[in-house]
Amino acid sequence: MLHIAIFASGRGSNFEALHNAIADQKIPAKIVVVISNNSSSGALTLAQSFNIPAFHISQRQFPDSSLFQQKILETLQTFNVNFIVLAGYMKKMDPAITRAFPNRIINIHPALLPKYGGEGMFGMNVHNAVIAAKEKESGATVHYINEDYDRGEIIRQQKINIDPSDTPDSLAAKVLKIEHELLPSVIKIISEKI
After folding, report:
1. What is each CA distance from 176 to 35, 88, 95, 111, in whole angstroms?
2. Which residues are annotated as catalytic?
3. pTM of the model
4. I need a surface site. Which of 21, 50, 103, 127 has the fewest CB within 10 A?
5. Which residues contact 98 (CB under 8 A, 6 or more apart)?
6. What are 120-129's pLDDT values in tens digits?
7. How many CB atoms lie within 10 A of CB 158?
8. Which class for 148: exposed (0-12), middle (13-18), buried (19 or more C-beta within 10 A)?
9. Beta strand 154-161 pairing with 137-144
């Protein structure tokens, strides 16, 4: 069974969608811990409401990055994590973590990779760029994490059409809606292979 760690920086809506799918017994998995680099992340509050252990672990709390990575790895080991889901996590994963969990870390990205990926391409930056480029479609991508931003193997994508009247904000809302469907569907597929 998947013992999932959620890494999130924001409000945690993808985490909530995944949690609800698991709670409804649609996915044979368990979210065992939530980690955020942001002490005011909504994901931490959500985790507490779901009785899931949640921790604020930030690089700023440690004198060097190796101690930070060590703390994350220790936390993952404490909860017997065997799979990591990045659900709006705004930090690049350290190679020490990607090596410890090969092909066991996935990310959801609010665009159709390889377009609109890479450093700085997150959140509204993505939707602003997509609208500015006058794209006809966008969507979401779930992919494995490797040591390069948004360059890991693509697992699954879901597309949406962009209307001429769409703004970055309306596009963001549309994409988020399909993210909430896409992420649980991918976790379900992976959980059934374990």
Report:
1. 21, 11, 28, 10
2. 109
3. 0.95
4. 103
5. 105, 145, 146, 147
6. 888 899 999 9
7. 18
8. exposed
9. antiparallel
